[in-house]
Amino acid sequence: MTGSEKMLARKADGIGWMIFNNPERHNAVSMEMWQAAERILTDFTNDDAVRVVIVTGAGGRAFVSGADISKFESERASEEAVAAYQTQTKKVYDLLADLPKPTIAMIQGHCIGGGTALAVTCDLRICGETASFGVPAAKLGLGYPIEGIRRLVDIVGPSFAKEIFFTAKKWGSEDARIMGLVNRVVPNEELEAFVIDYAKTIASNAPLTVASVKVIVREALKDRGAADEALCDAWVKRCFASEDYIEGRRAFMEKRPPQFKGR
User: Fold this and answer.
1) Which of 38, 76, 160, 255 could potentially form a cystine with 179 if both were Cys, beta carbons 3.0 to 4.6 Å apart?
2) CA-CA distance, 150 to 86, in Å (whole number)?
């Protein structure tokens, strides 16, 4: 499915896993890997059995550390090649941000540059206690697109977003938690089990309700008057008209776990 040995994908218990598998380069990402990521996320989107997606990096030392500089000569040597690379990267970021299913970034080790940009496209970020974050654009003279900055601002607010960019510092997990950049900080050895349990909890809940909240939160972040309130209302009505709403009520009355089907 992936078309690249440096991108791994698997499915189990309602969870789709997308794993960046370039540990010798701290999971730095090449064009081939971004193209594989697009295929993985498209497959997860179209598979009703996948209810939650976990994004992580292999090897335990890094989530994603940004672009693979060793590939720059072959993949980003010309203006056209740079544009193609940026287009593909944006496609994956947008796919992940707009995925109709909840997404969790499971972060171990370094989460730098493009890794932070990738993490903030996910709905939730859960990290190990030795994780570190940073956007070193100001040390490299890079310009940063508005979409990535907007996503960061939506999570940490304008002041922290400026601090992250202005200083280009590397931040520890506790700083990230204070900023709101991560939802939870967990001991390294407990991280995977914690995230799997979280994902299973979400996967067991009503898929339509979860999907509706993802849509409505996105609309709520827009300026007043700009939100698509008709779309939000349609999602609420869809939940109330669903078989899952009937199942949820019955399960509550019968004191048993509900069996939701997403319809």
Assistant:
1) 160
2) 17
